[in-house]
Inverse folding.
């Protein structure tokens, strides 16, 4: 790392310039306040540690945890490697190279993001298990043959990789696109081939982006329950739900979740520690980079790779969903779907703006006040993403209900005011998805170096003007990425939506829940398809913005 | 500084809209009932609609997972808007009563209509439909004469021929809990261990897939809730599947049944209306609707099941009170963990 070309961009000791551009401290206070607010649900979960449930712990330790931890370890490792390799490779190909179909692939490869991972999982098992059409046909043609089971460790890893690689793809692509062409040109002028240039220059320079994307994918993997449940692959989260729903102990479930929080926090801080003193800037103008033209077999290989990922991650699952949906569309599609769609879109849009704005505030404050306090705050405030959704939902709801009950008790209000209001719902989404918004914005923040500030200052731009005219435009692509990711994630989100929605505010995800929880997967396909279609909106927006 | 303020002013519109969206939507209204239900919308809304049409009482409801609804009720405490809790599985109803979230209801209508083994001995909840968990087999590979009891599925003759749904489903947890109640823990542990030894493939994530595996020949027998069988056969009547009612001998205790049911919340704001609705749910017309919408069995013995369901034949229900499924659920879960039933 030390000898990597990023060192050309290394800054002199920070500090001197940072102090001069301090934001009004009110903004910083606001950042701290919001962070505290998002910490409340996490604190509720952590508070369970005060009263340990020894009996359940003993049982889990003896019969469950060894196997679950092994399973979780392999899942995290597999998905981490999977999304990193596929995400970065696709990002590099579409951002820097030229090959047939590149323009279309560059937006189409985002599409798997719109499909909930557990839906992909269900489709994969439906198609590839013993009873599915593939094996059935194979048996008819060739008689009894042994297939490797899709309901296996490899199967879960493959499905989750296909569902989650877009996080890395989108964020890493942003890095490659804004990296600027000069760095690569310098590398090439120094005699490095494009391949070596990629590994020695582009990849290290994109590190915060890639790591940010992989971290998001892994936090979602750790929090996931739906996908692993479809595979009956037991992970740490399985134990959390088992303790709660089967052993009737939310207490024990929260204690397990607390361990998860601690683990993720340590991982996040350790990762951050390794790069605190590195600075990532862009060399030269961005976006007008001469593409590396792939020809012949390499060009077709690139197209083929993109197509395979797209087919497995989107085309095949969606085709299956459409087939299922067509069976039930007459029976199930009614006027209420307009409401479901509208609710989903409105909630997703509001949450995306809110999470984007808060992430911007947090990230910006941390930049203006370098130091452990705000950096830690930002980190801890984004931990909600690693918590299983239902556990976090309860963590949000308990303090809200408590406050409501206090307000009623002292006679300020007649009946509970907060619970069942959209504000609480949005707050809960914020707690859950702040990490998703924070990651792309934080990486983009690296693009604003001290030299940018100095240049602006020398032109007489400073203070709020500097923010509005220099910083915000530079952060725009990060913000859009953040908002788009949160938008799609909120559309898919289930536990928080279920728990905090006001009466009558059913969404498409709620419809999916109604059907899947009674095992009616083909009927769930209709809202799932609607969800995918509505989720395309931000992808289109991103594409439009990119093509400018 | 001034510029910052003007930025704030510019975005104040956003705050206004946000404020509009925070208008509370939980005010209590007269002549309405609020229901929290883990029985899904498509299975329960027809009943709400029918009741509203008949009586004019509006019903507001929210669906969610059982465990989450219980925590919600608990957190809301005395100010909960919910008057009634509807869930599937006796274990969840028992847990709701156990957490002090329900209140006893003394009603002659309910005790007349709902048999004693399908309701809480303390009258805090009442079963409203019966879900039988029974054996389904492949007609081409198994003769009904080969089948007898749940326990017998552990017989070595079924080695590599048994498919089971995961132990994480509450239906299997209740089944095992009732076995523990009947046979004691050591014997039940032996039985479940012998089941696991006979599995043809690792436990499957849902009943429908377990039956698909039987139909495709991956295994020959499985244990499922009958309404899943009904749904599957309605869609694909040609599958070589049939139902077998186990434990029917005179000395055996009968088919394992579970309920979906309801109770009145401890802090109900519309208690009288909610009790009236609960009583209505036990009447013939409602019972028919409640069960038929999902091909389940009515809880009231006076009401006949749907013709398609009746065609599966009559069977003897296990008469032990389903409350045991709740009391022994954690014991059952731990037992299944011990024998590595995943």
């Amino acid at each position: 790392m030390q000898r990597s070309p990023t060192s050309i961009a290394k800054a002199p000791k920070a500090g001197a310039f940072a102090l001069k551009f301090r934001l009004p401290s009110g903004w910083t206070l606001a950042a701290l306040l919001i962070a505290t607010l998002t910490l409340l649900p996490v604190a509720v979960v952590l508070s369970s540690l005060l009263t340990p449930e020894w009996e359940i712990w003993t049982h889990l330790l003896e019969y469950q945890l060894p196997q679950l931890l092994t399973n979780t370890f392999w899942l995290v490792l597999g998905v981490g490697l999977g999304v990193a390799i596929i995400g970065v490779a696709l990002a590099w190909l579409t951002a820097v190279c030229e090959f047939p179909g590149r323009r279309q692939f560059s937006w189409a490869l985002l599409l798997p993001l719109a499909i909930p991972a557990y839906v992909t999982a269900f489709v994969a098992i439906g198609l590839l298990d013993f009873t599915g059409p593939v094996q059935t046909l194979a048996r008819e043609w060739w008689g009894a043959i042994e297939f490797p089971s899709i309901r296996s460790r490899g199967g879960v890893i493959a499905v989750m990789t296909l569902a989650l690689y877009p996080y890395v793809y989108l964020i890493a692509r942003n890095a490659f696109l804004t990296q600027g062409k000069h760095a690569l040109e310098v590398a090439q002028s120094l005699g490095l081939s494009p391949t070596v240039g990629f590994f020695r220059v582009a990849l290290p320079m994109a590190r915060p982006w890639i790591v940010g994307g992989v971290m998001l994918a892994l936090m979602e993997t750790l929090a996931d329950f739906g996908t692993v449940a479809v595979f009956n692959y037991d992970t740490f989260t399985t134990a959390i739900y088992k303790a709660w729903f089967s052993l009737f102990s939310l207490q024990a479930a929260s204690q397990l979740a607390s361990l998860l929080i601690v683990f993720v926090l340590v991982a996040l801080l350790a990762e951050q520690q390794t790069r605190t003193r590195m600075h990532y800037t862009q060399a030269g103008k961005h976006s007008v980079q001469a593409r590396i033209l792939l020809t012949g077999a390499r060009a077709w290989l690139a197209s083929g790779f993109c197509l395979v990922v797209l087919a497995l991650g989107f085309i095949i699952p969606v085709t299956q969903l459409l087939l299922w949906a067509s069976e039930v569309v007459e029976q199930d599609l009614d006027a209420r779907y307009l409401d479901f769609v509208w609710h989903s879109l409105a909630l997703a849009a509001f949450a995306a703006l809110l999470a984007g704005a808060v992430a911007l505030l947090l990230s910006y404050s941390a930049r203006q006040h370098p130091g452990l306090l705000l950096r830690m705050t930002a980190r801890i405030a984004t931990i909600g993403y690693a918590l299983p959704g239902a556990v976090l939902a309860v963590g949000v709801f308990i303090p809200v209900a408590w406050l409501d009950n206090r307000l009623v008790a002292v006679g300020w209000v007649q009946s509970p005011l907060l619970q069942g209001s959209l504000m609480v719902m949005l707050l809960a989404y914020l707690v859950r998805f702040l990490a998703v918004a924070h990651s792309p914005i934080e990486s983009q923040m690296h693009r604003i170096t001290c030299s940018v500030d100095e240049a602006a200052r020398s032109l007489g731009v400073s203070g709020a003007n500097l923010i509005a005219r220099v910083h915000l435009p530079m952060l725009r692509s990060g913000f859009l990425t953040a908002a788009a990711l949160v938008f799609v994630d909120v559309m898919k989100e289930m536990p928080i939506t279920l728990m905090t929605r006001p009466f009558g505010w059913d969404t498409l995800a709620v419809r999916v829940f109604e059907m899947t929880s009674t095992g009616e997967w083909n009927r769930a396909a209709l809202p799932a398809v609607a969800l995918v279609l509505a989720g395309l909106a931000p992808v289109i927006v991103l594409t439009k913005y990119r093509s400018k | 500084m001034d510029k910052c303020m003007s930025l704030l002013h510019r975005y104040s519109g956003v705050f206004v809209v946000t404020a509009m969206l925070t208008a509370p939507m939980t005010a209590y209204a007269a002549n309405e009932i609020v229901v929290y239900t883990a029985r899904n919308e498509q299975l329960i809304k027809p009943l709400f609609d029918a009741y509203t049409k008949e009586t004019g009482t509006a019903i507001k409801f929210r669906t969610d997972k059982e465990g989450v609804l219980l925590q919600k009720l608990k957190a809301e405490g005395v100010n909960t808007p919910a008057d009634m809790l509807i869930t599937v599985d006796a274990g969840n109803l028992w847990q709701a009563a156990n957490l002090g979230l329900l209140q006893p209801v003394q009603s002659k209508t309910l005790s007349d209509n709902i048999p004693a083994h399908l309701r809480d001995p303390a009258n805090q909840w009442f079963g409203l439909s019966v879900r039988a968990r029974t054996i389904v087999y492949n007609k081409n590979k198994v003769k009904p004469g080969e089948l007898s009891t749940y326990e017998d599925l552990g017989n070595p003759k079924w080695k590599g021929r048994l498919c089971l749904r995961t132990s994480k489903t509450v239906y299997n947890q209740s089944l095992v809990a009732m076995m523990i109640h009947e046979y004691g823990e050591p014997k039940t542990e032996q039985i479940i261990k012998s089941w696991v030894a006979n599995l043809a493939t690792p436990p499957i994530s849902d009943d429908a897939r377990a039956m698909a595996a039987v139909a495709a020949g991956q295994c020959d027998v499985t244990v499922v809730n009958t309404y899943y069988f009904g749904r599957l056969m309605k869609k694909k009547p040609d599958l070589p599947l049939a139902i077998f009612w186990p434990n029917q001998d005179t000395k055996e205790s009968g088919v394992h049944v579970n309920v979906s049911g309801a109770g009145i919340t401890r802090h109900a704001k519309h208690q009288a209306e909610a009790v009236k609705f609960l009583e209505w749910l036990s009447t013939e017309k409602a019972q028919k609707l409640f069960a038929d919408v999902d091909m389940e069995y009515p809880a009231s013995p006076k009401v006949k099941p749907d013709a398609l369901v009746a065609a599966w034949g009559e069977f003897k229900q296990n008469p032990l009170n389903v409350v045991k499924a709740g009391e022994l659920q954690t014991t059952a879960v731990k037992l299944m963990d011990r024998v590595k039933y995943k």
